[in-house]
Design brief:
single chain; alpha/beta; Spo0b-associated Gtp-binding Protein, Chain: A; Rossmann fold; GMP Synthetase, Chain A, domain 3; 3 domains; six-stranded mixed β-sheet; five-stranded mixed β-sheet; 22% helix; elongated; GTP binding; metal-binding; P-loop_NTPase; GTPase activity
Length: 427
């Protein structure tokens, strides 16, 4: 099964919580703080695996989560960092942010890797909160949550040459003749339902990869037929060979087909439509009126295209078109990328629901604080300890929570709810 587009949910590991612990030491209050730090959560890393060819494995596993960091322990022992989750993808995988549609990464090189979601930082143990006046802090810091988001993986074939053409024009036959690929061939439309790749080794030229891609039809840019699949896969090619059926058996006008497909390319992507393109007039061995073939060839030449007459079934004209293809690939060299990775998107810190790590709202007579900050604080604060409560209030003020509550119109004596706890607000 060929799978070229999937949607998955990924989550980096949470940071471990800092520890509240004390040493057993003579003349030191409570033995002195000795709480270790929590370990960092594991990152989610995507890495190119040359052994993979499709995204089919992701069809059966849609959620991927990296391990969390370990909690800190006494005697200043830090928690173990969570291991990174390495997700293998085939070369040619593009990673999109599902919510924004922006490209986060475009993975093409062997063993190339990129961190898509970063693990949460571990919380600090109570050893870090000791001061001259607070020698035995009864609180530690909670670990941060790992980043999480939904991504779309899209596979685009890494081929040097893409074969353009309506269904049943002879693309599969051409590929089978010029390479060792064995695509399914039959005399009906949409024979090719998945892309086929073939490596061409021709004379003393460097070998190159040709892709026979699902046939395109008019309206492909709007998703008609197999159009979206087709257009996605020709985006990486350096050279396009546009194959036209000149036999007349299908009752189609090959020049009209040529114009329609190029219009679809231009609608899909302007850069793609500007790729170098040569034209192959296929099935020439069964053409009865050679004057029509000459007229079509002249039209295409006047439009600025190189034209080759061939019959893939009998090998007529194959040598000439392969010679020219190999020469052009050398002349073209590297092409301008169609995609541009959004660097800002790649560096963005993803939050599951909102940009701040908290939010405040009014619910009847209550004021509610919720979000990641709340979860972190509730694991850090000992509400029976004065210093711990003072730390709690300082964090709320420094983070801007108090200001946001005041903007909502909170007054002295009103009840504030955070998770399972409630307290009265006083300035």
């Amino acid at each position: 099964m060929f799978v070229d587009r999937v949607q998955i949910d990924i989550k980096a590991g949470n940071g471990g919580h800092g520890s509240m612990a004390f040493r057993r030491e003579k003349y030191v209050p409570n033995g002195g703080p000795a709480g270790g730090d929590g370990g960092k959560g594991g990152d989610v890393v995507f890495k190119v695996d040359s052994n993979l060819r499709t995204l089919v494995d992701f069809r059966y596993k849609r959620k991927h989560e990296a391990p969390s960091g370990g909690n800190g322990e006494g005697s200043n022992r830090s928690g173990k960092a969570g291991e990174n989750l390495i997700i293998g993808v085939p070369p040619g995988t593009v990673i999109f942010n599902k919510d924004t549609g922006n490209i986060i990464a475009d993975l093409t090189e062997m063993d190339e890797e990129v961190i898509i979601a970063k693990g949460g930082k571990g919380g600090r143990g109570n050893q870090h909160f000791a001061t001259a006046t607070r020698q035995a802090p009864h609180f530690a810091e909670g670990g941060e949550k790992g980043q999480e988001l939904t991504v779309v993986l899209e596979l685009k074939l890494l081929a040097d040459v893409g074969l353009l053409g309506f269904p049943n024009v002879g693309k599969s036959t051409f590929l089978s003749v010029v390479s060792k690929a064995k695509p399914k061939i039959a005399n009906y439309h949409f024979t090719t339902l998945v892309p086929n790749l073939g490596v061409v080794k021709w004379k003393d030229y460097p070998s190159f990869v040709v892709a026979d891609i699902p046939g395109i039809i008019e309206g492909a840019n709007e998703g008609a037929g197999l159009g979206h699949q087709f257009l996605r896969h020709v985006e990486r090619t350096k050279l396009l060979i546009h194959i036209l059926d000149v036999s007349g058996f299908e009752g189609r006008d090959p020049y009209d087909d040529f114009k329609k497909i190029n219009l679809e390319l231009e609608k899909h992507n302007k850069k793609l439509s500007e790729r170098r393109q040569i034209v192959a007039l296929n099935k020439a061995d069964v053409v009865e009126d050679l004057s029509t073939l000459d007229e079509l060839k002249e039209k295409l030449i006047q439009d600025g295209f190189e034209v080759f007459v061939l019959s893939a079934a009998t090998n007529q004209g194959i040598e000439a078109i392969l010679d020219r293809t190999a020469t052009l690939l050398k002349e073209i060299g590297e092409v301008e990328p169609i995609f541009e990775v959004n660097e800002e998107e790649a560096q963005k810190v993803y939050r599951p629901t909102f940009e701040k790590d908290y939010r405040v709202r009014r619910e009847n007579d209550y004021y509610v604080i919720e979000g990641e900050l709340v979860e972190r604080l509730l694991t850090s604060v000992n509400f029976d300890d004065y210093d711990s409560v003072a730390y709690f209030q300082k964090v709320l003020r420094d983070k801007g929570v108090i200001r946001d509550l005041e903007d909502l119109g909170i007054e002295d004596g009103k009840i504030v709810r955070m998770g399972d706890i409630e307290f009265e607000y006083f300035k």
